[in-house]
Amino acid sequence: MKRSYLGRAGSSGAGSQGEQGFWPSYADMMSAVALILFFLMLLSYIQNLITGNDLQNTQEMLEETRARLSGTQLALTEAEKALADTEKTLSITINEVEEAESQLAKVTIDLDEAKLTLTEQQSELSKQKEDLAAQDKLLGEQAALIGQQEEYLKAASEELLAMRGQMQTIAVLRLSILEQIRDSFVRATGDSSRVSIADNGNIILNESILFDVGSSEIKEEAAPALDQLVTIFYKFLSDDENAKYVDSIVISGHTDSTGTDESNRILSTDRANSVLDYLLSSSGGKLNRYAKYFCAAGYGETRPVDTNLTAEGRTANRRIEISIILKDDSVLEIIESYLDLELPEFMSNP
Question: Can you tell me the mean pLDDT for 211-227?
């Protein structure tokens, strides 16, 4: 583009050409500068546009970031709340765990004690089983021992029955002869009130059967009764099975308290000897061969069986007693025969 410049009229041609050559260069330069400025402004504008866009984007991003940050802060707040709740729950849980651990420790201690108790109980049970086994063994031994004892007791019972039979035989023999003596006197005198068997097993003959008052001479009417007595004793003693049990046959005289002690003692002795003499001399003296069994004794008034304050009592005290004394050795022999039984081992070795 050419620009025309109108200068003053009348200027020379040389001047006009020189001035004309300067201004176009300047204009071009200014145009270039303007163009450059324009481009710079355009670039600046573009840059501003770009920067504005970037700023807007940045602002949007910032808003978005702020929104996210707000959400994050809200989430963080909730997370912090949740964390606080979690910490609280954790604290509670820790307390519960500690309490559980304490309970567990206690349960562990209880369990240990229970295990110890169980061990002790098992030991005690084992000991009880051993004791029970020992007791079972002992019961078995005792059962066997009881069986032996029963056998022994059975044998011992049989021996006792045998010994009892022997003792009863002796008692029956003694009672039998006493009853025969009593009955013979009753038959001879016809009076049962003047002859009896005392509680001690002696025959009691009232004085009036044999003697008059104050006399030691046997009355004639007493002879039949005494002869019966001789027959009874002879029959009894002639049986060796009976005689082996007899130690002595005692004829004892007794008086009441009338008179002096000496006179009563003499009278009672004389009466006892009179009866004894009659027994040994009567019936041809057939009892003489058994004289070793007989003896006489006088006790005077020293052994009354009733009071001497009444007539009835004094009558009862004046008497002749006939006692059959059994051998202690005979009874002891029976007992010793039982004691000599061989004891079983379980009794001899307790």
Answer: 91
Average pLDDT of the chain to the nearest whole number: 80
Question: What is the C-alpha to C-alpha distance for residues 319 and 321, in angstroms, rounded to an integer?
Answer: 6
d(CA 153, CA 304): 47
Highest mean pLDDT among 47-56, 218-227, 339-348: 218-227
d(CA 213, CA 205): 14
* Residue 343 φ/ψ, nearest 5 degrees: -80, 145
pTM of the model: 0.50
69-123 residue pLDDT tens: 787 778 778 878 877 887 788 788 788 878 878 888 888 888 888 888 888 888 8
Residues 6+ apart with CB under 8 A from 293: 237, 243, 246, 247, 248, 249
CA–CA distance, 92 with 330 (Å, rounded to integer): 105
Q: Which residues contact 324 (CB under 8 A, 6 or more apart)?
A: 174, 177, 178, 201, 246, 249
Structural domains of the chain sorted by starting position, each given as residue range(s) with its CATH number in brackets: 163-337 (3.30.1330.60)
